[in-house]
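Run log // design_07
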């Protein structure tokens, strides 16, 4: 668990450093989006469409996976 948290902190620091360097040379999130020919509204619609596609499939998968995991957890021999 400690390694996971340490990795997340390193990732956050690396992202902060990269963002700072990009900011120094004048690169902004808006300029990156506009250079791809996408409007912020298009980006928002794409994210919402992805969530609308993902949510029902995630829930249906959980309906199958969670009971199987729970039974496996309950019926597994105790760990020492």
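design_07 sequence
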């Amino acid at each position: 668990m400690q390694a996971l948290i340490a990795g997340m902190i390193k990732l956050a620091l690396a992202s902060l450093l990269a963002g700072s360097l990009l900011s120094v040379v004048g690169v902004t999130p808006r300029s990156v989006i506009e250079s791809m020919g996408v409007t912020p509204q298009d980006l928002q619609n794409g994210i919402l469409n992805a969530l609308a596609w993902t949510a029902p499939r995630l829930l249906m998968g959980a309906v199958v996976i969670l009971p199987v995991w729970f039974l496996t957890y309950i019926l597994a021999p105790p760990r020492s």
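Helices lie at 2-24, 29-35, 40-75.
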